[in-house]
Amino acid sequence: MNTYHIPQTNSTPSIFFDRKSELLKIEGRSLSSDPDSFYQPLEVLINRHLEQQNSLQCTISLEYFNSSSVRCLLGLFKVMEQHALKGKHV
Questions:
Q1: Angle CA 90–70–68, to nearest 5
Q2: 52, 83 in Cβ contact below 8 A?
């Protein structure tokens, strides 16, 4: 799978992840009542990508996010940080 796309809804942001261009964009609002199920597949994709590739450019533009989403976003950042500490360009 070269691209992963989830369209924006009223409670979840749009996610566009293109492995070929090594670009991840998260845009919109994140106020899902179950952010774990929304962000977990993305966390897995990011981890797999950085295990196989050397870089990832991430752009996050959220106009609003709730406290549950913060925890999940921090999880994404932690995965990226772990790979950056191993010399990956994030």
A1: 145
A2: no
pLDDT tens digit sequence for 20-44? 999 999 999 999 989 999 999 999 9
Contact 59, 22 (CB under 8 A): no
Phi (first) and psi of residue 22, to 5 degrees: 55, 45
What pLDDT, on a 0 to 100 scale, did the predictor assign at position 77?
Answer: 97
51 burial (CB, 10 Å; 0-12 / 13-18 / 19+) is exposed
Quote helix, strand, coil % in the chain, to nearest 5. Answer: 40, 30, 30
How many Å apart are CA 55 and CA 25, to the nearest integer? 14
CA angle 5, 8, 14 (to 5 degrees): 45
CA–CA dist 29, 21 (Å, integer): 24
